[in-house]
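We give this protein:

***
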Amino acid sequence: MKRILSVAVLSLALAACGEGSALNDTVKVSVRESIVATCTTAASEQIPEGIGVDVSQVCGCAADKVMDGKSMSDLAANPPSPSEGMAKLQACLKELGPVTVNPAAG
């Protein structure tokens, strides 16, 4: 989660001068993609074999929740803590339905 924040803060710093512009929108998309990619990689490495969950969807949901209602300046000034990121991830897991277990993998 710290890597997510590092990438996001760097991108946010670059966007500070472009608040409200097309550059800002591009940076928001880039920050979201970075958060999703980092989350997906980290989560995929930790999910045991036989557990079925759409990690990309869950991470996309969490990224949206972290960024919801915040400008790039807001996120740069007050990036989400790891516990906040984990809370968003857990909320998305609940919203997106139960995790499935493949009994053959056990």
